[in-house]
Every structure is written in C-alpha cells, then in structure tokens.
C-alpha cells in the first residue's frame, strides 16, 4: 500500500540516534537543547520547548495560556480532535468556529461571532500546512483580550506575509509524528516569544519543578533541592528523539522543496480531471505542504476512497469534524454548527504526499484517480 504520508529517514538520522545511544545522556541532556535551538532557527528565533507529542504541546500551550474551568477556547472543527480535547480536559468550554470554504482554515469573522468575556484563547490550525489568516485573527483576539494560539502541526517552516510560523501567535505548537514534514518518531514543541509564557510551558512539561534558588521558598536547603509550586506532568522529549529531530531539521529545507514540487505536479496533472477541487493557496502565504487535500465533488468521496485503497493507494480523509466525535456529542454539541467545515469534510480526500514519493508513483496516483472520475 502506497501510504498518504511517511517519514524520510536516512543514514544521517541513524548515525545521530546511535551516537546518543553510545553516549551518557539518553534524556535531559545536551541533544534536547540542540534540538530546541535548531527548531528556533525556523521560528524566527522564538524560543521553543520540546515535548513528547503534538498533543502534549497543545496541552502545555493551554496551561501556559492560563486556560481553566469556566474559560472558553474558540477553535476550528476541521482538525484532529486533540486541538479541542486538550482544552476540554482543562475544563474549558470549546466553541467551534467555522472555516473558510477554500483553505479550510479558521474564519476570523466566525471567530468574532463567538467571542465572549470568557474567551481565554483562540486556536487556529494551519490546515494542510497553509497558514491561517493571522493578521485578522490577531486583531480579533486583541479586541477580546484573548491569547492567539497557532496549532502548526502541519506547517513547520511555512511563512505568512514573509513572517515565519512561530512568530505569528502568542503560542505555537508543533508535531513531529512520522507523517509530518520533520519527525522525532513521536514528539512536539511549543514556541513562545513571551518569557513568562515560555517559563510556564517549560515548568509544566517538567513536573512543575522550580530549580532556581531565587524563586524557591526554601532556597538554602542544599544543591539537590527543588520545589513544585504548581502541578505539572512529565512531557520531556528524550535526547534519543531530539537527536533524530536535529538531523531531520537540517534537511527541512529539502523536505519542503520536494513537497512543493509534488504539489505543483499534482496541480498540473489534476487540473483537468472532472469532479475535483484542488487546494487553495493565498498569494501572501508560503505553505509547508503536509497534505494535498483535494475535494471530490458530486457525493463520490466514499466511492473514490474505497476504489483508491483497493488499488493500493493509501488515501486518507482529514478530518472528521471534531464535534462529531461521540465525546463532544455527549456534551451537547450537534451537527450543523459549522456548515462550511462539514461541507469541506464531506468532500475532502488527502492524496499521497511525502518527500520520497517518486514522480512515477505520483503519476500512478493521478492516473488511478483520473480513471475513477472519468
């Protein structure tokens, strides 16, 4: 089965990992700092905190943002459920705003309609690797006194109006799952320019430990002393995986270039295939294409999905609207809340896209899809 996405691992990655395995630090060592520094090169210098997954990054970001029971978090339903679930786990009420029909990204006007005095944060998702409209979202959140969070699980290395992802929101989260542009097997990160937000993130992901004597209540106990002032969790990403991440980040430009080439080829090869809508791109955005999401019109998405998979081509659907999941239905959320997102989902199909996809394999994907639709 040709997958819709997969990791690109070479001998430099293997060497990076084995070097750590032969060393003294498997976790909490120098590779973590090296990974965070390498990642900051792609976030416009905004400092980053490495964590164990993209889901952990969202949880950490919401904690850093001060999300508590009774707060509201506005986000998109066209995302993996973790974007909403991590806010709900903190006791927040998640409010789903509709998306732009062409990009699938959060619609700033829909966000505005949902803001209240309880809104703590607005979380945009850079769907498929195409950054959301951050200038408009920033205006919206500033008027509401809310924080802007970017779920950039898809968009590492992307830019919006020549500003890199990582600089566009108060907190930015990344994912390094194997299907993403860069992988650490499992892993994530939080970027925050504000020192207070970054400190909150760094503490929460490490049990809430306070090691700085100047900040401790009993600083003179001894060199071993550490304190917990607020509860946290162990979301530390180990050196073994950070070493893989450093090696991967050094090839990020190449990964992005190849993904862009494949997207350009898809755009040409599929432009005359009937019954398809190809992904949109804003002129002021430089995407990092994680997905190639086509829209299969005329109610044929299920048929095309089944026939493509029967042909050995692992297409995927991204995503079930988050509030359709039973856990949200049981909380009172109902279908029909976000008609543009639901219409997008009803037609969306992600075609294979990853750096090691060959032109011949891509031609096979296109030929198979065209034969089904013609």
TrEMBL record:
Taxonomic superkingdom: Bacteria
Keyword Hydrolase: no
Signal peptide interval: none
One MF annotation (Gene Ontology) recorded for this entry: transaminase activity
SUPFAM superfamilies: PLP-dependent transferases
Pfam families reported in the protein's UniProt record: DegT_DnrJ_EryC1
EC number: 2.6.1.92
Presence of keyword Cytoplasm: no
UniProtKB keywords: Aminotransferase, Pyridoxal phosphate, Transferase
Cofactor(s) named in the record: pyridoxal 5'-phosphate
Family (UniProt): Belongs to the DegT/DnrJ/EryC1 family.
Name of the protein in question: UDP-4-amino-4, 6-dideoxy-N-acetyl-beta-L-altrosamine transaminase
Organism: Nonomuraea coxensis DSM 45129
Gene assigned in the entry: pseC
């Amino acid at each position: 089965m040709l997958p819709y996405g997969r990791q690109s691992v070479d001998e430099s990655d293997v060497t990076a990992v084995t070097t750590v395995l032969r060393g003294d630090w498997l976790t909490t060592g120098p590779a973590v700092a090296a990974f965070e520094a390498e990642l900051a090169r792609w976030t416009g210098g905004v400092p980053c905190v490495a964590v164990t997954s993209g889901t952990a990054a969202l949880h950490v970001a919401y904690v850093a943002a001060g999300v508590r029971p009774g707060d509201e978090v506005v986000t998109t339903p066209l995302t993996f459920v973790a974007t909403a679930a991590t806010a709900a786990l903190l006791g927040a009420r998640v409010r789903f705003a509709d998306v732009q029909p062409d990009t699938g990204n959060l619609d700033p006007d829909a966000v505005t309609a949902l803001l209240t005095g309880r809104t703590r944060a607005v979380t945009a998702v850079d769907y498929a690797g195409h950054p959301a409209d951050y200038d408009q979202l920033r205006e919206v959140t500033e008027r509401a006194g809310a924080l802007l969070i970017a779920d950039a699980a898809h968009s590492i290395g992307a830019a919006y109006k020549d500003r890199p992802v990582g600089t566009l929101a108060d907190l930015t989260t990344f994912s390094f799952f194997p299907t993403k542009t860069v992988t650490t097997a499992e892993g994530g990160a939080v970027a925050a320019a504000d020192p207070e937000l970054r400190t909150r993130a760094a503490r929460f992901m490490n049990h809430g430990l306070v090691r700085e004597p100047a900040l401790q209540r009993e600083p003179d106990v001894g060199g071993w002393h550490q304190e917990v002032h607020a509860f946290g969790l162990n979301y530390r990403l180990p050196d073994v995986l950070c070493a893989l991440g450093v090696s991967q980040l050094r090839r990020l430009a190449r990964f992005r270039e190849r993904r862009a080439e494949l997207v350009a080829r898809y755009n040409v090869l599929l432009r005359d295939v009937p019954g398809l809508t190809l992904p949109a791109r804003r002129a002021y955005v430089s995407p990092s294409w994680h997905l190639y999401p086509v829209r299969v019109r005329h109610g044929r998405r299920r048929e095309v999905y089944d026939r493509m998979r029967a042909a050995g081509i692992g297409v995927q659907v991204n995503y079930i609207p988050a509030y359709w999941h039973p856990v949200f239905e049981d909380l009172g959320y109902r279908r029909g809340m976000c008609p543009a997102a639901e219409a997008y989902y009803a037609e969306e199909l992600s075609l294979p896209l990853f750096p090691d996809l060959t032109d011949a394999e891509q031609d096979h994907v296109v030929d198979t899809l065209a034969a089904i639709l013609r």
